[in-house]
Amino acid sequence: MQIILTSHSPIIVSDFPKNNIIFLDTDKDCKCKVVKSITRENTFGANIHTLYKNSFFLNGLPIGEFAKVKIEQLFKKLQAGNIDDKIYKEIQLIGEPLLKNQLMKLYNDNLPNDVNKRVTELEKEIEKLKKQLNDKNRKG
Questions:
Q1: Which end of the chain is flanked by fewer CB atoms within 10 Å, N or C?
Q2: Does 23 reside within a domain?
Q3: pTM of full prediction above 0.90
């Protein structure tokens, strides 16, 4: 018995070894062709992000086009020195830590020095209060 499944889900693909999967792609004439699985990385138990990139022929970042454009716009605004509360809120919506951290670095670099100094002071105060809270919880 043979069962044939088709899927665009890396989660399903990660449940099968690559020798049980037929990879399809298009050639330069936009005709469907079979890609030899021997050239593909192992799929069984593979990370879904790796599968998206390698087995689903994902080019570039593994995010949607709308998000990519919005994030690029944020980088351009910050590189031009434009900062405001709206930009800060938009940065906080980003789920990818690397992108979010880079944007926050640019944002903070563009803040006036007195604001950066105050933020640093408040961060130290927060850490001090967290330590006090942890010490209190240990005793109680």
A1: N
A2: yes
A3: no
Token pair recorded at residue 53: 């990139």
Does residue 27 lie in a domain region? Answer: yes
**DSSP string covering the chain, please?**
---------HHHHTTS-GGG--EEEE-TTS-EEEEPGGGSPP-TT--HHHHHHHHS---S-SS-HHHHHHHHHHHHHHHTT---HHHHHHHHT---HHHHHHHHHHHHHHS-HHHHHHHHHHHHHHHHHHHHHHHHHHH-
| Tens digits of residue pLDDT in 6-20 | 888 888 888 888 888
Asked if residue 2 belongs to a domain, the reply is: no
Question: In this structure, is residue 4 part of a structural domain?
Answer: no
